[in-house]
């Protein structure tokens, strides 16, 4: 007797991109045709874009994955991914039950990124990070222990650094808070955007060390490449993100930075049964400009990949939705914000929205992103689309 095995889709990582991909796939594919497994090393969703809020003592809504995907047909595995074998189409994970191997027909790689110390001496030993919930909670405890007048230095003048330093300064006005940036403060913003950022820094009493490159981190100070010492009881490192090394070790084609090179459908250019979304994928946007690592990038990448997979399996036309940017949403504490409008390729234009209205706008975006993850079954079709391609390849004896 011959039966047809379900098409196995494994999604690695349940951040914004991975969770969005899993939710979209389960909405659009028939449960009888597909077995979808979501692997994540934590049991609940981490609102990474709010880690700076967590670090200053704010409590975030708890979103357990077993509740999010209850009744959806997604098999959830709380485990750490330790190996991806693209030749054998297998993933090795380690969880409470020990080591396990998961076979796949289609793999969605969304393991994301972690903080990047750039090899700076002492950063790992002495600096704090807010790229992970663990790091944010560690910083939270350290900040809570600081007496008034102590010095906090945030290293990195990008979005993460700006949001972290303003949140800390607003929450703890009794601390001496500063930011060190390689270039000018807000040099990626428009003239109006940069001017508002400086205004907020002045109001909050944040010191900006511009054109400052940090060469070393110690317990109570940092050293610049020029030999200057900047006192810091707490150093917060926000100088970008690094991808997980598993992708490069798997044999997938990756960039020098370890991102998986993908086509317009988010499909690996070296292994077409693998899709990479979020920070793990290296995709091109408008004007052939690489998409930046961000939630604003990861979620649309996930939608594109999910739609491409559905089209491939159901015999429908491949989607052609160009990935582009509209704005950059920056929180500057709880009562202020900056919405920097941009061109399709993420170049700043003069138009901005600032102040309390911008803060509300940013809050709405954050809530929307979390709602999308937390409600994968909100519009699930009772009977999703049937798989019509590749079924002969998965026939097996019942």
TrEMBL record:
Q: Where is the FAD/NAD(P)-binding domain?
A: 8-306
Record flagged with keyword Cytoplasm: no
Q: Which domain of life is it from?
A: Bacteria
In this entry, which stretches build a coiled coil? none
Name the UniProt key words of this record, in alphabetical order. FAD, Flavoprotein, Oxidoreductase
Question: Could you say which cofactors this protein requires?
Answer: FAD
Q: Which InterPro entries match?
A: FAD/NAD-bd_sf, FAD/NAD-binding_dom, NADH-Q_oxidoreductase
Task: Tell me its family.
Answer: Belongs to the NADH dehydrogenase family.
Q: What is this protein called?
A: Oxidoreductase
What is the native source organism of this protein?
Answer: Streptomyces ambofaciens
């Amino acid at each position: 007797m011959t039966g047809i095995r379900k098409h196995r889709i494994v999604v690695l990582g349940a951040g914004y991109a991975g969770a969005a991909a899993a939710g979209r796939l389960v909405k659009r594919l028939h449960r009888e045709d597909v077995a979808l497994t979501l692997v994540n090393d934590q049991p609940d969703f981490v609102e990474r874009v709010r880690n700076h809020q967590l670090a200053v003592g704010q409590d975030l809504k708890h979103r357990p994955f077993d509740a999010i995907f209850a009744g959806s047909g997604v098999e959830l595995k709380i485990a750490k991914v330790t190996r991806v074998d693209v030749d054998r189409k297998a993933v090795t994970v380690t969880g409470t039950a020990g080591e396990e191997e998961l076979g796949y027909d289609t793999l969605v790689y969304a393991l994301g990124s972690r903080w990047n110390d750039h090899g700076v001496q002492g950063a790992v030993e002495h600096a704090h990070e807010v790229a992970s919930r663990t790091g944010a909670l560690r910083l939270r405890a350290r900040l809570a222990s600081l007496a008034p007048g102590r010095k906090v230095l945030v290293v990195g003048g990008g979005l993460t650094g700006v949001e972290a330093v303003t949140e800390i300064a607003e929450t703890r006005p009794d601390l001496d808070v500063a930011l060190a940036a390689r270039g000018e403060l807000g040099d990626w913003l428009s003239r109006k955007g940069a001017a508002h950022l400086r205004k907020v820094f002045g109001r909050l009493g944040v010191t900006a060390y511009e054109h400052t490159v940090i060469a070393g981190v110690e317990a109570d100070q940092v050293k610049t490449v020029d030999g200057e010492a900047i006192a810091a009881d707490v150093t917060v490192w926000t100088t970008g993100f690094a991808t997980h090394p598993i992708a490069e070790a798997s044999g997938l084609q990756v960039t020098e930075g370890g991102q998986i090179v993908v086509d317009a459908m988010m499909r690996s250019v070296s292994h077409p049964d693998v899709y990479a979304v979020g920070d793990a994928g290296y995709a091109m946007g408008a004007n052939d400009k690489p998409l930046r690592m961000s939630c604003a990038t990861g979620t649309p990448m996930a939608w594109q990949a999910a739609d491409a997979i559905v089209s491939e399996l159901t015999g429908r036309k491949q989607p052609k939705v160009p990935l582009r940017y509209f704005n950059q949403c920056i929180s500057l504490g709880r009562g202020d914000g900056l919405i920097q409008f941009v061109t399709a390729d993420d170049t700043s234009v003069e138009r901005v929205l600032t102040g309390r209205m911008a803060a509300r706008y940013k809050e709405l975006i954050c809530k929307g992103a979390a709602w999308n993850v937390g409600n994968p079954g909100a519009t699930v079709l009772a009977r999703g689309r049937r798989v019509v391609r590749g079924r002969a390849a998965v026939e097996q004896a019942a």
